[in-house]
Amino acid sequence: MKALIIGGGIAGPVAAMALQKVGIDSTLYEAHPIGAHGVGTTMGLSTNGLAALQILDAHRAIADAGFPCPRGVMWLGDGRRLGEDVPTPLPDGTTAIQLLRADLYAALHEHAATRGVRTEYGRRLVEVDHHGDQVVARFADGGEAVGDVLIGADGMRSATRRFVAPGAPRPRYCGIFGTNGFAHGLNLDTEPGTFHMVFGRRAFFGYVQREDGCVWWFVNVPATREPAPAELAAIPSEQWRHRLHELLAVDASPAARIIQATPPGYDWFVSHQMKAPRTWHRGRAVLIGDAAHVTSPSSGQGAAMAIEDAIELARCLRDLPLAQALPAYQRLREGRLRKVHAGARQVNRSKSATGLARVLRDAMFPVLMKRFGSPEALAWLYDHRIDFDSTVTS
Ligand SMILES: Cc1cc2nc3c(=O)[nH]c(=O)nc-3n(C[C@H](O)[C@H](O)[C@H](O)COP(=O)(O)OP(=O)(O)OC[C@H]3O[C@@H](n4cnc5c(N)ncnc54)[C@H](O)[C@@H]3O)c2cc1C
């Protein structure tokens, strides 16, 4: 079997390595002329994502591209501690990490390249077609490629999705936008690697200090109307810094100090989530990662879900004929994805609450955290392990 993988982000190289493990040859086609684009944003990779990478013996290489964050602590803006989460590490001690998105892309590509995965850059998919019992990918450069299965790992604006599920739901705005940064010279009174999440009075703030003292942070600002990226970029950095300080100084957290210690200059992101279409496959084409379902950044699970998708798909293609493998893959994934989406919607509602809704949130939060935010309540997410050696049945 020959697989055409469209998109060399996160799901793409993982799919190529997973297919190689089950004896399926593949080529990655990436639209951009070089890899590791999208420099700047920080992200988390949780233990379930790293456990999935362990199946490919890739988890250490990826963990080394970031720094360990074994513990998360949640706070309210008034300084009340809501609870903490310490997901079970992998048997070799690997814990959740924080890293730059660009470093995750680069580490995955490097790892895939050392295993002989072929990547063709500058190949933008424009059309998918079927020809007898083969699938054809047509590219913007006029070229084409023919294979037995086409895997759409081409992200939120997937061209493959237009073919597989033309009526698919569109990405929806989650009520928050945000930015991130790095502060030096603060020496906060916190354990390095503990990720603090502050549900503040006017905005949400997340921060973690590295061993070397550098503080990685991000902020989520509520806004009922979706701002256009150009609108956010048009506001001068100094003005934004002042505004962020105003939003965060009302809280009993070091957020305002962290903003002051960060040189102004912000890249803004607007949070979206997109439900999966009813069917994730059509003919010989199938969707994985953000192409199938966009999980908002608030879940901290977009990359982990893309990795899990890629590995489960390879398992299905190993054990079943194609016509059964693609529906089996969707069945294995969709329930878990729905749960992750529901959790992210809940977090987004909490982050975007203002006025009375915010007061109610703060009153209810301690109770809700006990029920939904405890380590036991989150075990289904972080302790999920794919049993790669077990056979998938239709
Ligand atoms: C601000 C922000 C913060 C985030 N934080 C986290 C976090 O903390 N934890 C987490 O797990 N997730 C996080 N995410 C989500 C995570 O980045 C995505 O879920 C993840 O990148 C999805 O991987 P993917 O491979 O499916 O798609 P992508 O990473 O988007 O890769 C898609 C690839 O396909 C290529 N492509 C697109 N169109 C075509 C085409 N027509 N032909 C060929 N190639 C094409 C693109 O160039 C790209 O390389 C965050 C996202 C954002 C925006």
Q: Which term fits the overall shape? A: globular
What name goes with the CATH superfamily of the largest domain? FAD/NAD(P)-binding domain
Number of helices: 12
Instruction: Indicate the low-confidence ranges by residue numbers.
Output: none
**In percent, how much strand structure appears in the residues?**
25-35%
Q: Which class of the largest domain in CATH terms?
A: Alpha Beta
Outline the biggest β-sheet.
7 strands, mixed
With strands numbered from the N-terminus, the spatial order across the biggest sheet is 6-5-14-15-16-13-17
* Average pLDDT score: 95
Determine the fraction of residues in helical runs and give it as a percent range: 25-40%
Oligomeric organization of the protein chains: single chain
Q: What would you call the structural class?
A: alpha/beta
Protein name: 2-polyprenyl-6-methoxyphenol hydroxylase
GO molecular function: FAD binding; monooxygenase activity
Pfam family, one: FAD_binding_3
Domain FAD-binding: 2-317
Can you describe this structure?
Pfam families: FAD_binding_3. By secondary structure, the chain is an alpha/beta fold. It has 2 domains: 2-69 and 98-171 and 274-352, FAD/NAD(P)-binding domain (3-Layer(bba) Sandwich); 172-271, D-Amino Acid Oxidase, Chain A, domain 2 (2-Layer Sandwich). It has 12 helices and 19 strands. The protein has helices spanning 11-21, 47-54, 59-63, 101-114, 159-164, 229-234, 237-248, 255-260, 302-319, 322-352, 355-372, 379-382, and strands spanning 2-6, 25-30, 42-45, 67-68, 71-76, 81-85, 97-100, 118-121, 125-131, 134-139, 144-147, 149-152, 172-183, 194-199, 204-209, 215-222, 269-273, 281-282, 285-287. It has a 7-stranded mixed sheet. A 6-stranded mixed sheet has the order 8-2-1-12-19-18. Helix 1 packs parallel to helix 9 (302-319). The two termini are 19 Å apart. The model has no long low-confidence stretch (mean pLDDT 95). The structure holds flavin-adenine dinucleotide. Flavin-adenine dinucleotide binds at residues 6-12, 29-32, 41, 43-45, 101, 124-125, 153-155, 159, 269, 289-291, 295, 297, 300-304, 306.
